[in-house]
Structure formats: structure tokens, C-alpha cells
Amino acid sequence: MNTTTVAVGTGAVVVAGRWANQQPIDIKTAIGVGAYAVCLSVLSAADAKMANSLAFIVFFVACAYYVAPSEKGPGLVSKLGFSGTAGG
Questions:
Q1: Does residue 52 belong to any structural domain of this protein?
Q2: Per residue in 25-43, pLDDT tens?
């Protein structure tokens, strides 16, 4: 998969996670996602395999932080009302 697609997906996860937790989506978030995408594309020009691996690691870490329900973490899934239990 293209590293740009993974970078955009990571940005979408971060923005959705911040939105679900009533955290501000400010210019720092946009600059961070943009800088991440640019650095990833530069790295991809040098070594595509390493850039792809790094992109997926960052994507999975963002998913673990923002999406997975957690006792003290943001947990997008739990904020949207999904408890993760059957019938809950």
C-alpha cells in the first residue's frame, strides 16, 4: 500500500479520536499530519520498504491510542457508545 494512503488514514484516526474526546482540532494537528506526510514521502523516496513499515507502525499506534477503548486513554470506540460486550 502507498505510504501516502497510510499517512492520510493516520491523520483521519487522529482527527476522529480528538473530535470524539472533545479535544480541539487546531492548527497544530493539521501541521503535524502534514509534516508527517511530507517526512514520510521523503523517506519513501530514499527507502520505500522502511517508509512503509514506519507508516504502518505509526498507524497501528494511533489506532491503539485513539480507537481502542481504554480505562484512562481516549478510546474512540467507548466514546461512541460501543462497550465491546455482547448486549451492552
A1: yes
A2: 899 989 999 999 999 999 9
Residues 28-66: b if buried by 16+ CB within 10 A, e if exposed: eeeeebeebbeebeebbeeeeeebbebbeebbeebbebb
Number of domains in the chain: 1
pTM for the predicted model, two decimal places: 0.74
| Residue 87 included in any domain | no
Q: Residue 58 domain-assigned?
A: yes
Residue 56's domain comprises 3-79
Quote the cell numbers at residue 15: 482527527
